[in-house]
From TrEMBL:
It holds the Pfam family COesterase. It comes from Operophtera brumata (Winter moth). This is Neuroligin-3. SUPFAM superfamilies: alpha/beta-Hydrolases. It comes from the Eukaryota.
Amino acid sequence: MDQIAALHWVQQNIALFGGDAGNVTMLGHGSGAACINFLMISPTVMPGLFHRAILLSGSALSSWALVEDPVSFAVQMAKQSNCTLPEDIVKDHELIVDCLREVSLEELMSADISTPSYLTAFGPSVDGVVVKTDYAKELLTFFIPNDLQGFTSVSGVNNFKADKRSGDRTFGIRGGQN
C-alpha cells in the first residue's frame, strides 16, 4: 500500500520535477523487482500509475519474494518491544499495531528478528488485496507480445559460475505450485 501511495504522489508531483505523468518507468533490483512485479498484476493499482517496468535479478516468482508468515515476525517484534500480546493475535492485531506505533525508531531498528537465511521478516505477503492468493497464475498470463524479455551476454558467463556453486542458486518457480 505504501508503494501504491508513492506512485500516486509521483503522478501528482512529477511535473514539478520536469517529468511526464504519462511516461513513468519503475526499475527494481532484487526485492525491488519482486515488489514491482507484484504491483504489475495487483488489482489495487489503478491503470496509468506507471507505464513500464524494468525487473533486475528478481521477480514475484523468486523463492524469497514473499514473507510466508508475517504474523510470526510481527509477534517477535512486539515481544521485543514489550508490547502486550492479545489472546487472539489475528483478530486483535490492531492492539499490536497501536503498541508498535509508540515504539521509537531506534528500538525498532535494534530488534533482533530471526529469519531463515536469505529471507526477510518484513516485505510483501499474500493479503488478498494487493497480492492475491493466485498471483502465480496471474503472472503466467500477464505478459503480452510487446514485452521485451531477454538477457545480456553476461548472463551466459554467470551461468557457468553458478554451476560451480550449487548451494547458492535462486530459481523463479516456487515449489508446490502449478
